[in-house]
Amino acid sequence: MSTVIDRVSGRGYNHRVEMKSEPKPGILFTRQEIETTVRRLAAEISQDYPGKHPLLVGILKGSFMFMADLIRLLDFPLEVEFINLSSYGRGRESSGRVKVVQGLRTQVKGRHVLVIEDIVDTGLTTAFLLDYLRKRKPASLRLCTLTDKPSRRQVPVAIDYLGFTVPDKFIVGYGLDRDEEFRNLPDICTLKDE
Ligand code: IMP
Description:
Elements: E1 4-5, E2 27-29, H1 31-48, E3 55-60, H2 64-71, E4 79-88, E5 94-102, E6 112-120, H3 124-134, E7 140-148, E8 161-165, E9 171-172, E10 188-192
Parallel strand pairs: 3-4, 3-6, 6-7, 7-8
Antiparallel strand pairs: 1-10, 2-10, 4-5, 9-10
This protein binds inosinic acid (IMP).
């Protein structure tokens, strides 16, 4: 099996790229589109949270880049935490079982908690985390996700702040990986595979 990142000619990513066929445009969202969207989300969040000293909880590892860009645009006091959950084995399919690999070190009780996700796919991971946090009695609990793949949803998830809706394709880049690769791509790309 070869791994090929579809790419727009001229981009020349510095990754292991084996072109077995003609390149097709495969960047789903460019870095400029991502930046515009992160700005929009920051503006929406900024309407709702000043004065609340929210706790932003990012899900590792995929949300780290989004979190870093987002919080630099939020001009009010807040705290950042990360939680490490695992639901995927290697590759694309969710195992359906979510485990807390590393939990929170901050009290959630009474806090305004905003979960920062990279992608909601089946919804299993996010639903698990929202339930996990809700049990800890936050003052409020909301979800911000950069991307949403509604076509694969298995459990309902209410999204309060949404960046992009994506088609049923595996995406990588801007923090999103496949088997730990491709997180460092600055654009969100689809993987051409198999
Ligand atoms: P869910 O539990 O199926 O909603 O998946 C949530 C997690 O699976 C995300 O936080 C990602 O880590 C991973 N994931 C799901 N779809 C993709 C994708 O298209 N690209 C990269 N990671 C994905």
